[in-house]
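Q: Hi! First time doing this. I have a protein sequence and I read that you can turn it into a structure. Is that right? Here it is:
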Amino acid sequence: MSLFHLNVSEWIWIIVAAVLIGFSKTGISAFSMPVIPIIALIFGGKESTGMILPLLIIGDIFAIYYYNRHADWKDIKALLPWVAAGLLLGLVVGEYTNDGQFKMIISICVILCLIILVYMEKKGEGAKVPNGKWFYALTGILSGFSSMIGNAAGPIFSVFLLAKGFKKDKFLGTTAWFFFIVNISKVPMQALVWHNIHLKTLWFSLMMIPAIAVGAIIGAFLIKKINEKPFRIIILVVTALSAIRLLI
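A: Yes, that's right. Below is the predicted 3D structure, encoded as structure tokens:
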């Protein structure tokens, strides 16, 4: 247990985090949010983003295996140029912002999106979903920015998909491919600029594959038991709690 200079308690929390990552990728995406404070507490702010990223990519691969046929490529392609801008912005801001400050920024973004979503849920069929370029630009930039700084784009992207009225399978398939592309794009940025991804990080990720796989299997099983309405409610509640947690 002396590997990485971690004690037994820290290893247990890391394994829990890996299971949550797997569960979030094939089940409910917002459940990845508790992973951020867990890993940050053990490894520190910027270093933790490098530790989490390879784990997320492994989880993305499991998600693609389960849901690859359900992706909406039109929306993914429309978002990617804006996501790239958000990633670059996050790369720069991450150099000059401490952990507390960028977590607060992310939380504010998520809470604003949640307010819009709650309004649209109350409007029901009468709600008008934005289709303009500004909507894709805002979602893409916020997703890229929050993903780069804290691997915390899940809630923002969930709000976007729910606002667009995505059903469960389409929601999961689009999320799987979107984050696989985004997370792969972040690897060279973090490795070459932030220097927080290295061979030790990759070895650590390989060790966590069994835990991620367990979480992915549980998530894929449980998501089949959840109907559309409860699915939307769970996403909303967990996202709200995650946003509040980032502010604390």
